[in-house]
């Protein structure tokens, strides 16, 4: 809901602030240009086209700022958050289970005199197109020169479905679930059948590869184990010689008993220390460490002797290992860097081959599911079409009644529910609202069958009938009362008030019969300092409303009869609203 709009430096408006509340707000005033600038400012705030010529003479830029409250979980809040907007908590509305959390969003648009413009959403710079996206869920503008929201066929279909209520909503929910599954099944079938040759080639390659792996039968980690074994077999003589030489250095060589060795030298060192160890604890500790070294060297010498004795030259085993490694290497060149990766590929390939080999069964099962879903969708679509057709007739009758009350007694609408080819996400129907202004005329699309003034009243009638079923929280009407007066004007005001029970409504009007139904009355006032004429906006109290209605009725505020008529209009409107 729009809470506040501030306009600075736009056309004749120097600085104006509009405080907007729930219900029906009307804008009146002597200066037509000022009222136009109010709508121009709102249009800019909602992402409309910028015109540098609208910037007030003598200023370099125009600024329009707006503060709106939105549902915390709604699409507008989600889109604004995606764009990085900062959203502040606002006063929730409703009570108990119907309580709705609200957020406050700040919007602004700056237009330079040379025509450039900038937009800000939630305190952050944003493309102007984002304002237009958000406006689609915030405001519906109905004016002679505005793009009408309900002129789009998709909007007409959605609005009719909301008007139809559960009769469409329940089967449509089931339909949407089955439609999504049908799309998935058809995509899967297309993928299987259109790529049958590629899948057959893939299966043949998998069989060939899996056969190679199976014939070699590699074991986990076998490549690393064999690599180590080949290293030992290929260097057996060198390994044995190194072990024997090291053993002789540690424990001596029987062929040369007088040659020094490590164990002999350690024994001499211990013999030198042991007789004196009792005289000094520090020396005793060193003697113990020397004994540990002797034991360690002795163990290493024994292990070297054992290792040297166990190293055998086995050319046959070496050839066998090299052959096995060659077979494993052939696998790792194709299916993985290591044997473990080859085994992982084989496991995944086996599963994929089972899937590919089951294509025929899969195609048959998917085909049966598609037939079942198609039949179920056909039944649901027929139910939806029937409900839409019935709702369309009720809707057309209701709107025609409203048009009669709005001084269009011969006007009527026709809501066509036409079949289209194939299933769509919302069924098998296209919906179009057609209009005829008099008997005998062929119904035509809304934007072609109605004049500007008729279109505004037609949209009012449609919105009144749709009231409560349309998610847009704010409606703006300009020239909705064009070409009407007297009783018809009262009916326009009454219907605007009816619509305001379900949404926020902003109306620019020149008729006192319409203005009398306002919950909030804003007046565009003109001032002239002898050099520059400017306009502002002020909120009228009860006395101010009587004065303004008097001016609108008689052209002057001091007329006693005009004031009496104004008070009567206000009283009649209040009584009408109390009795609705």
UniProtKB/TrEMBL annotation:
Protein family: Belongs to the RecN family.
CC per GO annotation: bacterial nucleoid
GO biological process: DNA recombination; DNA repair; SOS response
InterPro entries in the record: DNA_recomb/repair_RecN, P-loop_NTPase, RecF/RecN/SMC_N
The name this protein goes by in its record: DNA repair protein RecN
Function: May be involved in recombinational repair of damaged DNA.
Keyword Mitochondrion among record annotations: no
Domain of life of the organism encoding this protein: Bacteria
Source organism per UniProt: Jiangella mangrovi
Pfam family membership, one: SMC_N
This protein's record includes keyword DNA repair: yes
Keywords on record: ATP-binding, DNA damage, DNA repair, Nucleotide-binding
Domain RecF/RecN/SMC N-terminal as annotated: residue spans: 2-531
GO molecular function: ATP binding
């Amino acid at each position: 809901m729009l809470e506040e709009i501030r306009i600075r430096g736009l056309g004749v408006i120097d600085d104006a602030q509009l405080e907007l509340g729930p219900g029906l707000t009307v804008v009146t005033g002597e200066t037509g240009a000022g009222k136009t600038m109010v709508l121009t400012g709102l249009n800019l705030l909602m992402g409309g086209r910028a015109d540098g010529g609208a910037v007030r003479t003598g200023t370099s830029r125009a600024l329009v700022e707006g503060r709106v409250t939105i549902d915390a979980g709604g699409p507008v809040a989600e889109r604004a958050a995606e764009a990085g907007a900062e959203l502040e908590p606002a006063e929730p509305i409703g009570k108990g289970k119907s309580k709705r959390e609200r957020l406050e969003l700040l919007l602004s648009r700056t237009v330079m005199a040379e025509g450039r413009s900038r937009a800000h959403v939630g305190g952050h710079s944003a493309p102007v197109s984002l304002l237009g996206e958000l406006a689609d869920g915030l405001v519906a503008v109905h004016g002679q020169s505005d793009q009408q929201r309900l002129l789009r066929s998709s909007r007409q279909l959605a609005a009719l479905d909301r008007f139809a209520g559960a009769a469409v909503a329940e089967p449509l929910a089931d339909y949407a679930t089955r439609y999504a599954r049908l799309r998935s099944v058809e995509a899967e079938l297309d993928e299987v059948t259109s790529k049958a040759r590629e899948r057959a080639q893939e299966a043949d390659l998998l069989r060939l590869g899996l056969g190679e792996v199976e014939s070699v039968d590699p074991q986990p980690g076998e490549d690393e184990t064999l690599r180590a074994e080949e290293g030992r077999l290929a260097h057996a003589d060198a390994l044995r010689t190194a072990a024997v030489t090291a053993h002789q250095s540690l424990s001596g060589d029987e062929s040369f008993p007088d040659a020094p060795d490590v164990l002999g030298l350690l024994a001499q060192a211990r013999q030198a220390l042991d007789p004196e160890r009792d005289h000094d604890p520090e020396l005793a500790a060193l003697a113990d460490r020397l004994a540990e070294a002797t034991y360690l060297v002795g163990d290493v010498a024994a292990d070297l002797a054992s290792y040297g004795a166990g190293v055998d030259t086995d050319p046959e085993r070496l050839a066998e290992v090299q052959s096995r490694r060659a077979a494993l290497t052939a696998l790792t060149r194709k299916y993985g860097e290591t044997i473990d990766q080859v085994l992982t590929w084989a496991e995944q390939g086996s599963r994929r081959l089972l899937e590919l080999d089951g294509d025929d069964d899969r195609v048959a099962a998917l085909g049966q599911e598609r037939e079942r879903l198609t039949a179920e969708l056909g039944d649901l679509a027929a139910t939806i079409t029937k409900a839409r057709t019935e709702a369309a007739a009720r809707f057309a009758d209701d709107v025609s009644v409203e048009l009669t009350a709005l001084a269009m007694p011969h006007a009527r609408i026709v809501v066509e529910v036409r079949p289209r080819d194939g299933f769509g996400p919302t069924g098998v129907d296209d919906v179009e609202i057609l209009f005829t202004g008099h008997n005998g005329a062929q119904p035509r699309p809304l934007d072609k069958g109605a004049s500007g003034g008729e279109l505004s009243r037609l949209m009012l009638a449609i919105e009144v009938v749709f009231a409560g079923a349309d998610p847009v929280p704010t409606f703006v009407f300009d020239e909705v009362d064009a070409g009407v007066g007297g009783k018809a004007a009262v009916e326009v005001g009454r219907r605007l008030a009816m619509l305001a029970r379900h949404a926020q409504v902003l109306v620019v009007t020149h008729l006192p019969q319409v203005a009398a139904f306002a919950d909030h009355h804003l007046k565009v006032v003109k001032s002239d300092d002898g050099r520059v004429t400017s306009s502002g906006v002020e909120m009228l109290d009860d006395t101010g409303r009587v004065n303004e209605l008097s001016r609108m009725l008689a052209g002057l505020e001091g007329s006693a009869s005009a004031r009496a008529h104004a008070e009567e209009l206000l009283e009649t409107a209040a009584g009408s609203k109390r009795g609705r």
